[in-house]
Amino acid sequence: MSDAKHTPGPWRWELNEKHKQIHLVGGKPQYDLTIIQPTRWGLQNATFLIRDTAHDGMNIMHKLHERRDWIAPFKGRAHHADWCAGITHPDMRLIATAPDLLEALKTLAAGLEWNIDNHPTVMNESDAEALEMAKEVIAKATGETA
């Protein structure tokens, strides 16, 4: 599963209050694919329906707990795998790394902004465009824009 790719963006959360459902949707055409949707697992708890990214452009969903190839024990903790394991699905990995990605983008944007301010003759138009894009994404992730 290591060579599987995540669902292409843009992504957004959709709430359907009438049917009491929440979905993470995305892909191309825009928001055409359900990426993740919580669902019941037994009588008490929930699991996720997750899109199978091996089927490019298709919306084939599987219950996470039924796809053993998307679940792996944590390194050094295989003896706990029946009650605490990691999820290897590419969309779930992307979501889990989002805070790290945001911090990395903030750091890169700050460095790029410093370079533009202090070495304007070295910077080019694509640097300014990259900085603007980074600022827009940071604002979107932090709720500063709709």
List keywords for this structure.
146 residues, alpha+beta, five-stranded antiparallel sheet, two-stranded antiparallel ribbon, 7 strands, globular
Can you walk through the features of this model?
This protein is an alpha+beta fold and 146 residues long. Helices cover 32% and strands 25% of the residues. It contains two helices and seven strands, in the order βββββββαα. The chain has helices at 90-118, 125-142; strands spanning 11-16, 21-26, 33-41, 45-51, 61-63, 71-73, 85-87. The strands form two sheets. The chain has a five-stranded antiparallel β-sheet, with no helix packed on it. Strands 6-7 form a two-stranded antiparallel ribbon. Helix 1 (90-118) crosses helix 2. The chain is globular. The two termini are 34 Å apart. The model has no long low-confidence stretch (mean pLDDT 88).
- Name the strands of the widest sheet in spatial order: 1-2-3-4-5
Which structural class should the secondary elements be placed in? alpha+beta
SSE series = EEEEEEEHH
Helix content: 25-40%
Question: Approximately what portion of the residues adopt beta-strand conformation?
Answer: 25-35%
Helices and strands in order:
Blueprint: E1 11-16, E2 21-26, E3 33-41, E4 45-51, E5 61-63, E6 71-73, E7 85-87, H1 90-118, H2 125-142
Antiparallel strand pairs: 1-2, 2-3, 3-4, 4-5, 6-7
Helix pairs in contact: 1-2
